[in-house]
Every structure is written in structure tokens, then in C-alpha cells.
């Protein structure tokens, strides 16, 4: 190995999700800093029961005025010409497709329809690939259907021309249903959603995106990464997910208490740009690698901040992961010093 090869910097993926409905909130893809983003997942396209893949909101995607062009997807395709390093990937699924994926994935004919339909959409739009967000294969049978689906898609999206990724939760109950080593043969990356460990649905409060679990029975980012790697997924194919939102637990002062309800939006969350809450002090739990603020209208709010993102980036480098992704870009702080996307990029690429 020559010294020039040894010194070449490792380029990590720093990817963001951009949900199409955010265009109606006054957000646009042009507001992001593409100096620190090299992949955008445009979310979500829908899948129909016959396997067809369609853009989910024509007005948002192709009609509304956005960054001087038509539609948020139009804006991204325009930005892609300007920033030649930028990959734009169509994210298919999300919560709205949870019922359809099991139907489509269980049939060879529907899998083929899906793959052909996705390919047609990519070629018509100039997108770089697709991301499968099936929330989530919850039986061994669905796990093997998931594998059959990604195998079918690869036939139509050869890896030298198209990206194929999938988003999975860092939760063993889901991961154990899938032959992950085999899935990684077809996928360019697995986006590990290392968040939503605790929320309004859980019986106790907790750090929603902890890198390390405080108790043996709790999920964590590190255990999710370990599960993927021990199943044979190459580390460079794993992106670690960072939430750009915090989860609220009212009337408690930290993790491990009985869940007594949530503040914030209808789903018990606050956007990261609204944290820490007014009148509270931000703290970092270095052992769990989690930030929090306590008091005010959110009670105990668990989230990530620049300190925890630097620690997570260091973990990525230590484990030789592919990089980080963020859900979702419009919720990041507009203050460059507070921006988690910028912090993650800098931390990944600093020596």
C-alpha cells in the first residue's frame, strides 16, 4: 500500500431525510447546507397493493413553488445538478405503507411489479436509487419476504448504476426476523434507526436514542450495530441514525420512571430546533450518550445535541461504519453551532 493510498481521507456518508409535506410548512431543500450533506432521502413515495410505486403528493413533489422551481423533488433534482456529489434517493413506505408491504413482498409477481415500477420512476426523474422503509417486518415469514423483495429489486436496479438501501430499527425483535447478512449482499446501506427506543407507547421514561443501554433489557444504538455486524453485515454498509427531535415525558425528572404522559406535539415530541425548552438547562448523560432538558412544558425531554453527535460520530469511526443519517433535516437548528447535521459531518471528517 503506497503512502498516498494510506493518507486518502475516508469519506463518510452524512445523509438526511427530507419529508415532502414539509414544503407546506415553509421549508425547502434549498435551505440545507450541501457542504455537509452527500445524500438526501426524499420521503415518502407510496406502494399500492398491486406493487406500483407512486409519488405520494403531486402538489408537494412537483407543483408548489419551491426554491424557484416547481415542487420539492424538482428543487432537489435542480440542487443535484449544482452539487455534483449529491445523491438523491427516493424513500418508499413509512407508516402509511405498513399494511401494503407484507402483501407485495409475499408475491413473486407483485415483487416484480414493484421493482419495475420503482425503476420506471427513477429513470423518469433522474433519482439515484430507492430506500425501502417497511415499518417493520415483524415475523420470520415477513423477514424472508423482505429478503425476496430486495433481491427482486436488485435485478432491476443493478448496483453499478443505482443505490438500494433499507431502513430498519435498532430493535432485536425486528432484526432477528431477517437474514441480515444475506440482505446486505443486495443493499448498499442499512439505515439503522437508532431512536424511538422510548416514547408515549413505552411504560417508562427513557433516553429515546441512547447509544448505550443503562439496563440489559433496553435497546440501544450500540446493540443494534452489534446485531447487524454479528449477522454478517459489513460495518461500512451501516449508517447510524440520529433523531432531529426529542421525546417528552411529563412529571418525571429523567429516565426509568413510570410514564405519565407526554408534552410537545401530538406524538409527544419536540423538534430539535425547539430544544432545550425555555427555562431549562441542557445536560448530557455521557454514559448513555444522550442529551436531556428537564422542566418547563416538556418535563423530561430526551434528544441528541452537538456533544452527543460528536460522541456518536466517534463511535462510527471506531466501528468503521459508513456514516450517519438524520430524521429529518427541516427540524435541525438554523444556528450553525447547534446544527447536528453540520456537527456530525465535521466530527466524521476530522482526524
Automatic annotation (TrEMBL):
Coiled-coil ranges from the UniProt annotation: none
Name of the protein this chain belongs to: chitinase
Domain GH18 span(s) in chain numbering: 12-351
EC nos: 3.2.1.14
Keywords: Hydrolase
InterPro entries (alphabetical): Chitinase_II/V-like_cat, Chitinase_insertion_sf, GH, Glyco_hydro18_cat, Glycosyl_Hydrlase_18
Highest taxon listed in the record's lineage: Eukaryota
GO cellular component: a single term: extracellular region
GO MF: chitin binding; endochitinase activity
Similarity section: Belongs to the glycosyl hydrolase 18 family. Chitinase class V subfamily.
Keyword Ribonucleoprotein: no
Keyword Plastid: no
Gene3D superfamilies linked to this entry: 3.10.50.10, Glycosidases
Amino acid at each position: 500500500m503506497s503512502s498516498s493510498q494510506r493518507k486518502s481521507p475516508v469519506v463518510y456518508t452524512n445523509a438526511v431525510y427530507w419529508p415532502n409535506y414539509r414544503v407546506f410548512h415553509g421549508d425547502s431543500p434549498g435551505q440545507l447546507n450541501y457542504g455537509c450533506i452527500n445524500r438526501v432521502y426524499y420521503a415518502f413515495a407510496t406502494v399500492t397493493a398491486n406493487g406500483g410505486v407512486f409519488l405520494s403528493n403531486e402538489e408537494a413533489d412537483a407543483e408548489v413553488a419551491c426554491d424557484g422551481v416547481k415542487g420539492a423533488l424538482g428543487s432537489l433534482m435542480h440542487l443535484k445538478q449544482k452539487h455534483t456529489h449529491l445523491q438523491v434517493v427516493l424513500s418508499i413506505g413509512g407508516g402509511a405503507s405498513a399494511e401494503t408491504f407484507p402483501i407485495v413482498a409475499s408475491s413473486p409477481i407483485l415483487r416484480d411489479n414493484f421493482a419495475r415500477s420503482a425503476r420506471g420512476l427513477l429513470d423518469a426523474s433522474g433519482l439515484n436509487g430507492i430506500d425501502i422503509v417497511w415499518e417493520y417486518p415483524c415475523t420470520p415469514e415477513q423477514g424472508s419476504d423482505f429478503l425476496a423483495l430486495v433481491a427482486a429489486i436488485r435485478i432491476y436496479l443493478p448496483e453499478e448504476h443505482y443505490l438500494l438501501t433499507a431502513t430498519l430499527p435498532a430493535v432485536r425483535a425486528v432484526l432477528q426476523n431477517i437474514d441480515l447478512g444475506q440482505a446486505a449482499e443486495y443493499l448498499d446501506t442499512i439505515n439503522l434507526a437508532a431512536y424511538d427506543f422510548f416514547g408515549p407507547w413505552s411504560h417508562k421514561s427513557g433516553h429515546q436514542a441512547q447509544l448505550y443501554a443503562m439496563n440489559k433489557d433496553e435497546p440501544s444504538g450500540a446493540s443494534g450495530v452489534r446485531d447487524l455486524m454479528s449477522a454478517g453485515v459489513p460495518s461500512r454498509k451501516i449508517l447510524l441514525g440520529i433523531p432531529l427531535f426529542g421525546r417528552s415525558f411529563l412529571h418525571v425528572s429523567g429516565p426509568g420512571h413510570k410514564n405519565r404522559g407526554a408534552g410537545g406535539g401530538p406524538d409527544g415530541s419536540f423538534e430539535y430546533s425547539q430544544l432545550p425548552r425555555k427555562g431549562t438547562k441542557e445536560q448530557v448523560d455521557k454514559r448513555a450518550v444522550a442529551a436531556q432538558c428537564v422542566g418547563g412544558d416538556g418535563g423530561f425531554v430526551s434528544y441528541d445535541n452537538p456533544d452527543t453527535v460528536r460522541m456518536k460520530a466517534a463511535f462510527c469511526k471506531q466501528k468503521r461504519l459508513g456514516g450517519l443519517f438524520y430524521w429529518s433535516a427541516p427540524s435541525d437548528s438554523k444556528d450553525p453551532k447547534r446544527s447536528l447535521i453540520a456537527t456530525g459531518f465535521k466530527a466524521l471528517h476530522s482526524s
